[in-house]
Amino acid sequence: MALPSAAPERQLKHSRHIDVHIYARGAGVWEVDAVITDVKTRDTELANEVRPAGVPIHDMLLRLVIDEAFNILEAGSDTRGMPYPGECDNHGDAYARLVGLNLMRGFRYAVYERLGGVAGCTHLTELTQVLPTAVVQAFAGEVINTRGEGVDAKQPFQLDRCHALRTDGNTVRTYYPRWYKPASQDTPSRRQPFPEPEVKRVRDENS
Asked: Is residue 7, in this structure, part of any structural domain at all?
């Protein structure tokens, strides 16, 4: 399906930005900073004030400290812009409940068990959902082997996880020929959950 045309008369009313930065701290420990902001192009009447255009309605930071097996070691949040000051940020240390979860093992379900509904902030809890694949991107080629090379290598975790990387497709045949599998009537469904990647430092393999 083609992209719908953008109407020339359309007017921007609201922008939501999600920004994720991932830092290597050293010694196998990483930091994840995820920020969500909501900004309107007009003055907005809130319950207790009029928020000027361009001043965020929401500005929230979620920080995780993780290891290279995707385990969450520390977690916390900072609500810097909110529609209900003193209330939106009055959830205590709720996001410390993320500690002990693994980003690649039932993470999204576990988040909603611990922080869904009134247990947390809608926006911060939604923000957690982008983190597993963001961390995979940060780790790819440095912490995890995405090429599937080496005698004992396993199939790269990203294959059969999207239409471009299906193992009976041209991309895999061209760039991952070892893992190419021609399609047949007996080929099982390739709709699979996102798996846990094989975690192994690439630079260690090449040393």
From this structure: no
* Contact between 201 and 142 (Cβ < 8 Å): yes
Does residue 117 form part of some domain?
A: yes
Q: How many Å is the Cα radius of gyration of the chain?
A: 21
Structural domains in the chain (count): 2
Q: What is the pTM of this model?
A: 0.84
pLDDT in tens, 13-52: 999 999 999 999 999 999 999 999 999 999 999 998 999 9
Contact 165, 173 (CB under 8 A): no
Determine, yes or no, domain membership for 9. Answer: no
**Of 61, 57, 63, 62, whose CA–CA distance to 85 is shortest?**
57
- The C-alpha angle with vertex 174 and arms to 188 and 134, in degrees rounded to 5, equals 75
Range of the domain at 75: 14-139
